[in-house]
Give the backbone structure.
Amino acid sequence: MERDDFARPVLKWAGGKAKLAGTICALLPARIDTYYEPFAGGAAVFFALAKSNRFRKAVLADSNPELINAYESLKSDVDGVIAALRSWPYDEEKFYYLRDQYRPRTPAKRAARTIYLNKTGYNGLYRVNRSGQFNVPFGRHTNPTICDSRNLKLVSACLKHVDLVVSDFETVCRSASAADAVYFDPPYMPVSATAYFTSYDKHPFAIAEHERLARVFADLAERNVCAVLSNSDTPETEGLFCNWTVQRLQVARAINSRASARGPVSELLVVNRPKNHKRTRPSRANVEAE
């Protein structure tokens, strides 16, 4: 197969792992029975693992119903999604109509709306208010690719035997066993009081949720399930995962609204192996990420 015959992420997601997928995949088992990704987002690690046939089965989950509907519709009605996307031009008036007034009547059109807003909104963000309404402004892109029909069809084929669920991360992981693997990419712990971005759905991912995630991570280790987790490098995160093997990476992020504030930041990759495994020193190489 040529490279273009493999599915690539459809959505640009804040904190996306497209450029880090190889590093993350190297920490997961060579062969996985069921692969779980409880914070699906752009699902870059899933697509990387699928490319190399690393798992027998996969479960993609998220608490955001619009995201899961997008994947479910691509899986079951990719032609309907493509038809809707092709009918909507890149236009500011169309963007605000679809964002604020349009109420899709089919799952495929609902999925197309999600993809369109992601491709044409500011900085590729997906953000909602407390009412669950998408509130990202129009983005002034140069000729954005709104409908990559070839990749959408490849994604559809890739999702054919994948379970897609709207669910809490803890619930998703309950059925994982020793032959399986889990990758967690939660909304990150804030690095400062002004850097709190968890608005992927209307339910905030606060410190109590990070603490619960740490307990689930430890429980998977007790059950001999390999788990890998990404998060920001903060004292709080370090404290929650201090018993496990930690690797630090310098990663370029571009989510900040001020260009001058964008640049390499330290992130953690945590593996649920005891920390007596040799810890990796901070990486000197910057990694460009979404």
